[in-house]
Design brief:
257 residues; alpha/beta; five-stranded mixed sheet; five-stranded parallel sheet; disordered N terminus
Length: 257
């Protein structure tokens, strides 16, 4: 396809390298990808400092070109409840994912890309509206007394607080992730979002979904625990909502067989 024909079809001005040849286009005026000789351009035009990433392997969409201003790293449920050795002794792979997660956080921040911490954080209204199936799934003995919102007792001299409730220690980010999160929040590079289901994008609107819309985000990288549950649920919902989604294997883990 000739380059000028592609320009006419999309109806916008595109800022690509002079040497990049546009092979095809997917999308419409507001939301499109370009298949170019330099890779798949996901910037939707106008990126002042685009970044080219090689996804590796046999991925047919590699390399990709992204706009840092529209790109975020979504970190799911890296919390004490899921990662502390006493609370979750089987989460060895999740704990092993912490160093590469911290490295990727640093790289995203250095390139002006947002860090989006998305974690279980319930309030009393959430408890009232929680379906029985979820209450059962997070109960130790099949009763309300050990499910969401129940007092988890202490760990040494630390009060664990109520199960996965906002502000509790068990719902806090685990280990070295917590100070990294707090410094990022203070610096304005990181953002925090509570969720009340496996997916951080479940429902008509959520704190995460509103943020993504307001900031004009388009491309999301995902990691965290558990990859087959909350990470995957949020990943799929983001895909259904039309975001570009990339699952980062090195920072994703699960306790499932």
């Amino acid at each position: 396809m000739a380059e000028n024909v592609t320009y006419a079809k999309i109806g916008v001005e595109l800022s690509l390298r002079p040497t990049a040849i546009i092979n095809s286009i997917l999308g419409n005026y507001y939301n499109y990808w370009l298949n170019t000789s330099a890779g798949w351009d996901l910037t939707r035009g106008g990126a002042s400092n685009p970044i080219t990433l090689d996804l590796g392997g046999k991925n047919q969409k590699s390399p990709i070109i992204i706009d840092p201003a529209k790109t975020g790293l979504v970190i799911i449920d890296m919390q004490n409840f899921f990662l502390d050795p006493t609370l979750s002794p089987r989460a060895t792979l999740g704990r092993a994912a912490i160093p590469p997660t911290l490295e990727l956080i640093s790289a995203f921040r250095a390139n002006g890309m947002k860090i989006l911490w998305t974690q279980w954080g319930l309030d009393e209204y959430d408890l009232i509206n929680m379906p029985p199936s979820f209450l059962y799934g997070f109960s130790d003995d099949g009763t309300m007394e050990t499910s969401f919102g129940s007092d988890m007792g202490t760990l040494g001299n630390i009060s664990l607080g109520r199960k996965l409730m906002r502000g509790s220690y068990n719902a806090q980010s685990y280990g070295a992730l917590y100070p990294s999160q707090q410094s990022g929040l203070a610096a304005g590079t990181d953002f925090y979002f509570n969720k009340n289901r496996l997916s951080g994008l479940w429902g008509a609107e959520t704190p995460l979904s509103l943020f993504l819309k307001e900031r004009g985000m388009t491309t999301l990288f995902f990691g965290g625990v558990n990859v087959d549950q909350c990470v995957w649920s949020t990943f799929v919902d983001a895909f259904f909502r039309g975001y570009d989604v990339v699952l980062v294997d090195d920072i994703s883990a699960t306790v499932s067989p």
